[in-house]
Amino acid sequence: MKIVIFGLTISSSWGNGHATLWRGLCKNLIRAGHSVVFFERDVPYYADNRDMAELAGGHLILYRGWQDVARQAKAALADADAAILSSYCPDGHDATRLILDSRCGLKVFYDLDTPVTLERLRSGEPLSYIGPRGLVDFDLVLSFTGGPRLFDEYRNQLGARMIAPLYGHVDPDVHRPVAPQPQYRAALSYLGTYSADRQAALQDLFVEPARGRHDLRFLIGGAQYPRDFPWSSNIYFVRHLPPAEHAAFFASSRLTLNVTRRAMAEMGWCPSGRLFEAAACGVPLLSDTWDGIADFFAPDEEIILVNRSEDTLAAFARDDGELARIAASARQRALDEHSSQTRANEMIGLFERSIRRTPTLTTQEA
Q: Which of 219, 268, 293, 345 is most solvent-facing, going by the fewest CB within 10 Å?
C-alpha cells in the first residue's frame, strides 16, 4: 500500500507523544513493503528540537505553510491506497478537504488524543483538526483509546461510521534493556511532558513520596515544566530526552512511574506509549489506576498499581528479586502484544477490513 499521512510531527519528540509512535509505526510499515509519505508543518519549536532528520525508506515532507505544499500533497494522494489525518494536525481542515476530494482508496482519521478531543467537543471548543462535518466522511476512524464508551461517543458526536482502537506501542529496537548511566540514577523516575491535568496525580504519587524519602534520589524527564513546580532537594530534572536516551533513563531507575492524563484516565483503556516503552526497557513499572489497565498488564504480576503516596512508598520496600520478576514479565508482554510491528500489522488488517466494507468493528474484534 501507499500510505500518505498528515500529522502533528514525526521529526521531533519534544513536548509530544506523537513522534515516537509514528516512528515505530512507519518503520514497520516500510519494513513490510508499504510506501509511506509523511507531511509535517515545519514549526519553530519542533525545528529547534528536531531529533529525526529523515524517514528511512519513506518520505518526510516538511513545509512552512499549507499553500506551499497543497499541490505536492494533492499529487501524493492521487495514487495513494490510504490517507491518514491525525489529531492535532495543524492544517487539519485543509488536509481533510484535500483527502476527501481525492481519489484515495481509503480515508482514515487517527485520533491519538481521543479523550481530549471528546472533552473539548463536549465543552464546545473548536478543533483545528476536525471540521464542521465531523468524521462522517471518513471510511475508518482509529482511536488511541478504547473501551465501551468509544463507539457511541464517536458516532453520536462526530458521525463516525467504522471505528476501531489502535493502541500505543513500543519499538524494541529503540526501547530495550541497556546499562544504567550514573546521570540518570534514581530510586524512582518519571518521564513525561508537563500537563496540568496530570499534576495532582504526579503530586501524590511522585512528589509526596520524594518529600517522605529524602534518602532517595528521584528523577523527572520532560519538557514544559513550570518554574513553580513543587521541586524538592532530592528531585532532579532532565529538560528533554530524545528517544535514543529513553532506554538509559529507564534502565537507571529502580522503579519508574506512569501517570495518565485526567481525561484519558476517566475514559479508561488508555495505555500511553511511555507505559510500553518503560516495560520494554526492563524496569519495574508503577502506574496510576484506570479502567482496562489489566487488559494490557496484569496487576502485581507485570505492573504495580498505585493510588496514593503510601502505595509508592510501599513499592520501595519490595524485594529486588520480586521487582525483577515483575519487570521481566512486563517486558515479555510488551514484546509479545504491544510492539510497533504488532500495531503496524493491526493497522494494515484494519485497512483491509475497511476496504472490504465489513460491519462496524467492536472492541472485542479489534
A: 345
